[in-house]
């Protein structure tokens, strides 16, 4: 299901919870009614830093305790998280997948609706559209007596219009079963969308209740500070912070941390008289006094726009790339931090450790301030960034880091732990490159780095990066590949969508009709990615427009199956025709390109989708473990034969055969108590 793991967010929020706080909500009438009566949508809203996520996690804990003794009751939760660019924590699709998986764990066996969805998606060979996911979830909800769903930080979702509409639909169609709760800032679009829901329970995190919680939090923190035992001193601190807090736990916590640096009462009183107003002014002070502003800015850019959660060691390694000394960014081991944990000190107040060794921005408001116009008028103006500039910096850092591995033996299983950023750089530099845009001053440097990376020969840096991550071969690092196992640099340049590198390689004599890539010739790879400029460039240099891959695919069938209408039109203008024998289904993109009409939304697939026709039968057999002795014949696309699959009686062990087409190393079949026998068949039956 590819559902994200939200447990780090939940655990981090629970760790921040101060015992005794939140009782006004958890023991209050709104939450009590919501637990008891289905059909209520409970919306908890408040301003930034008021403790909504901590309160939400406390509510989830209460729901778990309430439901655990009720086996026919399901529960699920999800934390949207906009502190980075981690798509899994930002989009509607992942929310629904996560809830399906969590509810399935409360079922006895695999829910029938989930099995049906699997079969409707050709035994897992394609991803389900959001409509099918929603329908499946709806059926699973109705299989329980009651279901509790809690969603945090709805305002941080990148598709919140879709999520709000889905919430409205779920609460109306499953009102007899469903208890839904959401937290967010009180954004106008969210308020408009939710206020039309019948049964809305609206709770605001403001007023005396939240002030009482902040007082409890302050008393607990101050009780642990032995240096402030002068009469009345702790009361002075507590009253001052509470009076200026404006209901923000985060602001209070940051001021307490800052006050700890005072050496005497005079300094403490002076600082209490000049407290910053709000979070923005607090961030100005933290940033402006940094002793390593350049490193801090890059660390924050990485954390704000990384594609996944980052470790302390990975972030510290960012400093090893020198952006200033020479014309191009370059790796320097002399810049490596002797202690990676010093990152936590440099970023103090701005980052938090959410799991063992995993750090994130401490709060969404940190990212919002860094990219806002407000920062430009203050002492922290040099820390200002934007999305494209940050992605460009990350792409440059990643490429410069990878270019350091410029020998065939630069990386191995033994040396990989010495380079913590290598895996991230290899896996994500392309995504950051495409997100960088061209409206910043670093385009030339980024292009030059790509030219070096895709050197025609030898391209050791590129090959070492592919050792680390090549989703066409394996999702794990694989150092067993030989030079001849790699496709030419032109193929990988086309796959990355780097038109600059493609043009450079073609001008140096690269074969535009070479057919050694997993996706086929360079034109097919570019058509898969959907990069029109790269396709145009290849066509200009005489690539054969109807060349087939080893699966029988052409650039036209590939572009069509991916829904790239502009490329389908372009290929047709250059003589592309539909051919027999393609392994891909005909898409409406072909019709759309001819008629000039729109194209239906297609599911996004991984680059290994060609082999899913082979993997799917294995998966379907694994899911049918309750049918021992059943024999079926599956028809596979060329160059594979038709294979017979059957499972032996439970408890026995069978042999297994892995078919390895050219360019692909198949994964072993799972070896458990019911191993499946796989035999090649001489002919289809």
TrEMBL record:
<keyword id="KW-0677">Repeat</keyword>
<dbReference type="InterPro" id="IPR036770">
    <property type="entry name" value="Ankyrin_rpt-contain_sf"/>
</dbReference>
<feature type="region of interest" description="Disordered">
    <location>
        <begin position="647"/>
        <end position="671"/>
    </location>
</feature>
<dbReference type="Pfam" id="PF12796">
    <property type="entry name" value="Ank_2"/>
</dbReference>
<dbReference type="InterPro" id="IPR027417">
    <property type="entry name" value="P-loop_NTPase"/>
</dbReference>
<keyword id="KW-0040">ANK repeat</keyword>
<dbReference type="InterPro" id="IPR054471">
    <property type="entry name" value="GPIID_WHD"/>
</dbReference>
<feature type="region of interest" description="Disordered">
    <location>
        <begin position="1"/>
        <end position="21"/>
    </location>
</feature>
<feature type="repeat" description="ANK">
    <location>
        <begin position="551"/>
        <end position="576"/>
    </location>
</feature>
<dbReference type="InterPro" id="IPR002110">
    <property type="entry name" value="Ankyrin_rpt"/>
</dbReference>
<protein>
    <submittedName>
        <fullName>Uncharacterized protein</fullName>
    </submittedName>
</protein>
<dbReference type="Pfam" id="PF22939">
    <property type="entry name" value="WHD_GPIID"/>
</dbReference>
<feature type="repeat" description="ANK">
    <location>
        <begin position="485"/>
        <end position="517"/>
    </location>
</feature>
<dbReference type="InterPro" id="IPR056884">
    <property type="entry name" value="NPHP3-like_N"/>
</dbReference>
<dbReference type="Pfam" id="PF24883">
    <property type="entry name" value="NPHP3_N"/>
</dbReference>
<feature type="domain" description="Nephrocystin 3-like N-terminal">
    <location>
        <begin position="20"/>
        <end position="185"/>
    </location>
</feature>
<dbReference type="Pfam" id="PF00023">
    <property type="entry name" value="Ank"/>
</dbReference>
<feature type="compositionally biased region" description="Polar residues">
    <location>
        <begin position="647"/>
        <end position="658"/>
    </location>
</feature>
<feature type="domain" description="GPI inositol-deacylase winged helix">
    <location>
        <begin position="293"/>
        <end position="377"/>
    </location>
</feature>
<feature type="compositionally biased region" description="Polar residues">
    <location>
        <begin position="1"/>
        <end position="10"/>
    </location>
</feature>
